[in-house]
Amino acid sequence: MADSETPPGIDIRSLDTVDEVHTASQVLADVWGGDRGGMPPNLLRALAHSGNYAVGLYDDDRMVGASVAFFAAPAARSMHSHITGVLPGLQSRGLGRLLKQHQREWALARDVGHITWTFDPLVARNAHFNLRTLGTRVTEYLPNHYGAMDDGINRGDQTDRIMVSWALAAPPVPTPDDERVVASVVVPHDIEALRRSDRADAAAWRLRVRDEILGHLSDGLAIGGFDDERGYLFVRP
């Protein structure tokens, strides 16, 4: 992935102090609707102090985003990116890509070859970013992976997730050519807005997308990419 141009005043720094850890925990809570349970300060402090990836994204002296990842088993040469977020209102400036680029460089410097993470399959912009922009590879579909969550984004919904793996030294996985695509599963263009306006319809989308994806996977197909209009693109492995 080519380096992203860093906007003026933007910096990424490790979370070295207790105050920085508490600020990062609050920033992530603000991203997820006010719940600090996703990354409480004591857990974040432990992860940072034990050598895992824990950074804040700063706009001058104000922290506006954060990212946390932890190492997998040593033989796997992998780490799992647990949470990454940028404050609402700043999410279309390429700052998420800057965080992932920083995470990639940090991992490569420590002989890590892969980074994994999960995302909500209904969030089209995240699917686009993960599969089209970064070129990650889908490894699993995880129904209700975290169980019930009480943050402002996930409250009242089941927590289905797609697991992806990012091969840091390999070229991005390309979106499959049309002749390779044998099926697709469409998702809403803006599930967050739909959840606010019609939670019943949003819940129906959850079950419909889950059933269609799991059906294609059980038929031996694989998610090979994402298209903004057609949704998830399925190919024969």
Provide a descriptive summary of the structure in words:
The strands form two sheets. This protein has a seven-stranded mixed β-sheet with strand order 1-2-3-4-5-7-6, sandwiched between helices. It has a three-stranded antiparallel β-sheet with strand order 8-10-9. Strand 4 (78-86), helix 3 (95-108) and strand 5 form a beta-alpha-beta unit. 31% of the residues lie in helices and 27% in strands. The protein starts with 9 loop residues before the first strand and ends with a strand. It is built from six helices and ten strands; from the N terminus they run E-H-H-E-E-E-H-E-H-E-E-E-H-H-E-E. With 237 residues, it is of the alpha+beta class.
- Number of extended strands: 10
Strand content: 25-35%
The residue ranges in which pLDDT falls below 50 over 5 or more consecutive positions are: none
Level of helix content? 25-40%
Cα-based radius of gyration, to the nearest Å:
18 Å
List the secondary-structure elements in sequence, H or E: EHHEEEHEHEEEHHEE
Structural class given helices, strands, pairing? alpha+beta
**Main sheet summary:** 7 strands, mixed
How many H/I helices? Answer: 6
The span between the termini is 24 Å
Strand order of the largest sheet: 1-2-3-4-5-7-6
User: What do the pLDDT scores average to?
Assistant: 91
General shape: globular
